[in-house]
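Convert to structure. Protein one:
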Amino acid sequence: MEKERGLMISEKLKAQYNGWGFLIAVCGVMLASVLSLFFIHTVVSIVVSISILVLSAIMCAGFFIVEPNQAVILLLFGKYVGTEKEQGFRWANPFYNKMRLSLRTRNFDSEKLKVNDKKGNPIMISTVVVWRVRDTAKAVFEVDDFLDYVHIQSESALRHLATAYSYDTYEAEDEISLRSSIDEVSEALKLEIQNRTQSAGVEILEARINHLSYATEIAQAMLRRQQAEAIIAARQKIVEGAVGMVEIALDRLQKDGVVDLDEERKANMVSNLMVVLCSEESTQPIINAGTLY
């Protein structure tokens, strides 16, 4: 199998001739042959003139046009000869079979796929892939249909990528997820598609997730879960900030000598500050006219 893969066909650039020079030459030869038929009436001259006309007609089959961002693949009796990419009016061996192939940038939007993410949650996902043909020989001869090949391999890569990452995460902020790490996920998807389509001779210019959502059957449940996780994460931040502010307040009071607090008064102040800082609603102050004792 490895030996067979080592015989992969690669692109060979083969510049052909300028078509205008050959056009002038062929027209001149054909004109001379026609004139000889009218003015020279020997059998030999007639046979030669007709032969030259037939040969000139065959030579005309070698003319072709290469448009911008287009390539012409040349085959000689089934054997790959080379690829012409220089645009303009060209001439090649009239026995070459010429296959045109567009080198323009292409893109497609994949269908929405239902897959399971890293945590096993069913999600709906699709991607937009921007690509172009890089190696014309591989695109035509190494795969049966390079268009279908790119589409199928892109969907396969997308399925594999979805199982490697979670839809979203709040437990570890530095963990890559499909929803929050768009650039990292897109780059990983691009590389995987490129690796899978290498044998088709295409270059993946961009691959980005176009649609991402939970599957219908768990969408509501996961929405509530997301809201709960968001609330927990927010409360955790609030508590961490409140603890820091209380520590700063106690340190400043002690450092500046504003008031001398014993352990019980410190505990009471910490309790009051935590209530004020962590409460979701405005707190109402209560003036204590007495003492704690």
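Protein two, convert as well:
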Amino acid sequence: MAKNKTNIQWTEITWNPTIGCSLMSPGCTNCYAMKFAHRLASFGGPVGRRYSGLTEVAANGEPVWTGVVKLVEEALLQPLSWRGRKRVFVNSMSDLFHPDLPFTAVARIWAVMALAARHTFQVLTKRPDRMRDWLNDPATPAAVEAEMRKIRPGARLAAWPLRNAWVGTSVEDQKRADERIPILADTKAAVRFLSIEPLLGPVYLKAAATPSVLRRLHWVIVGGESGPRARPMHPAWARSLRDECAQSGIAFFFKQFGTWGFPVSGKTRKTIGLMPGGREVPVGTPGSTALARLGKKLAGERLDGQLHQAFPTAPQPTPPQGSLPFAKPAKRAA
């Protein structure tokens, strides 16, 4: 299971039953998965063939998604063999609700999640409308149960929505918050969360949603962008979200500052001034905050000197009926 381990602080392992994606909004510009997929495609053997065709080189010389999405059959049943209880990030290399991935494939993946009830699955999408439509469809539970029985004959769905499935949407600015938060809040789920990373501008939850909508959110993850082309995050944006979450009773997780952080003596390579609205100005400009290009490790994961790594209070998973813990999955018919 070592190859599934991850350094993402809010999860423990990744599971990629699908790979490939397409650009959706400004948060996708410097997508790490897009660049990693392009590098994997250059490998020889099965890995190179698996990732072939998912990316191409754009006019600026950088890799970009082609929009091709693949179901990875050999990865599909992996969680059924994992021991213990894990938090599993679903599709770090894709989007489970990409429009080119049929709902029949989504049902197969959800069936594995239902059968692996001891694990908690964290599903994150930039397409919450498609996720809502599928999860809220009255026909979806029967479709998932049918796929469960193909894997483990006799298995039955014990609860809907799945108690061990957390569903979230990515938000990078106020426009995306206004569009996506109400959709997420209207989605059937045990736990709903926002990944506000990369945070590219001020985001106000109360401007995007009414108090009744915010009560349907359980968790907010916030982080700045990392990598050589990272855009800076103003610390006031993160503070504002921290305070809003505290006021609304939402668990708050600050993941990282990203590449840009407060200047450190002897470690600073480049320094800018950043205005609260996001405009870069010369250092020392009145009203600006000085930020330095430090790298993710040095910039750190503390906000005002404190770690904020809260998790939502989630319901206990309900094992699917007709199955046993750690039972070996049945082989799929050819």
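Residues 323-334 have pLDDT under 50 and may be disordered. The radius of gyration is 21 Å.
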